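Supplementary Text 2. Reproducibility record for the structural model of the 133-residue chain.

All settings were left at their defaults, and a single model was retained for analysis rather than an ensemble. We include the record here because the model underlies the residue-level annotations in Supplementary Table 4.
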Amino acid sequence: MVDSAKEYTEKQKLFLEALYDQAGGDIRTAMRMAGYSDTTKMQTVVEGLKDEIIAQSELLLASNTPKATYSILNVLNDPAHLGARNVVSAAREILDRAGVVKREKIEVSGPESGLFILPPKQQDSEPDEQRAE
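Retained model, structure tokens:
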């Protein structure tokens, strides 16, 4: 995900493309694929692309939510499946981080009576014009 308003070097563009594709999220591998030298500090590259890396991570999580959903459903169909607990745990983490959260119903209750006692109404004094008569 490259922001069209921001100017990127060719190496930065290649790094962003490689990071979530061929490099599988490995920063050093993506740097090598983009043509950075092995002596270049990872922090130097990441600092300038922090927002773009976070945006790509969010997109990657969002794109894996269907797989996480189906993983949970598969465990429902076959609860004895080896590692089912780990599958559900991992799927739950992906769904939570992608923003798909379980809905909680909050019920608010109070006293049974709907009666409110208000303070006495204050009377305004008559306007000065009426008193003069």
